[in-house]
Design goal:
The protein has a domain of about 45 residues. The protein has no helices and five strands. It has a three-stranded antiparallel sheet with strand order 3-4-5, with no helix packed on it. A hairpin with a 3-residue loop joins β3 and β4. The relative contact order is 0.24.
Length: about 70
């Protein structure tokens, strides 16, 4: 997934699933609708509906995700 020129990883178990990004306190959260999945990944058993599946710090303008320019 690419947002604002930066590439973010989605858990491999969600490859092909529709996901969304949302801003959350200086971070980007990757959210998936688990109810829409044909097969629920084992690490998400018990979760339901819209669920955060990954989170990344938001890089500052001009900086890469690893803190370099």
């Amino acid at each position: 997934m690419v947002h604002d020129g930066t590439r973010y990883a989605v858990p491999g178990s969600l490859t092909g699933a529709q996901v969304w990004l949302r801003a959350a306190r200086g971070a980007l959260a990757v959210v998936a609708d688990l109810a829409a999945l044909a097969h629920r990944p084992a690490h998400l058993v018990g979760a339901d509906g819209l669920t955060e599946v990954a989170r990344y710090r938001t890089p500052s303008r001009g900086a890469s995700r690893n803190g370099t320019r």
